[in-house]
């Protein structure tokens, strides 16, 4: 798999809408999918008026998923939720992700996409020193993909779930930039196959 990431554009919204409506995505993202909802939630990053990035993940040129990436400092409420549970370095970023095509779920695509966005983060975000990710504890596939991609669990506790049917228990995962005090995370990446 060879991934590239490009900013989500408004002409991608119909594709994103379809992905968000698939049961394997809707269960965890719990996102409204009418055109106005997509404009409200993704339009600002599409035109650069809001912080963060919505990135379309392409595998060999084919759109397969979405990655959201942002500096935690740009979202104080979310930063505070993390800070209650674990140390948050000043330049920490966070990611969220989905595999859109249900036919490609469970085949390692999510792990590969996470590894690729981590590498992209270190390459394109020179100030980023840490990636923190919170996952609902019940979303086993998501946190296992993070572990396979070299993240380590550093905390667990209550955070606001995206889907109100979920228990608030979340696991917090961390990966540090290799060579910047993140040797354990780098070793985990090297050791994972």
Automatic annotation (TrEMBL):
GO terms for molecular function: N-acyltransferase activity. The keyword Transcription does not apply. InterPro entries: Acyl_CoA_acyltransferase, Acyltransferase_MbtK/IucB-like, GNAT_dom. Keywords: Antibiotic resistance, Transferase. One of its GO terms (biological process) is siderophore biosynthetic process. Coiled coil: none annotated. CDD domains: NAT_SF. Residues 3-178 form the N-acetyltransferase domain. Pathway: Siderophore biosynthesis; mycobactin biosynthesis. PROSITE patterns: GNAT. PANTHER family: LYSINE N-ACYLTRANSFERASE C17G9.06C-RELATED. Acyltransferase required for the direct transfer of medium- to long-chain fatty acyl moieties from a carrier protein (MbtL) on to the epsilon-amino group of lysine residue in the mycobactin core. This is Lysine N-acyltransferase MbtK. It comes from Jiangella ureilytica.
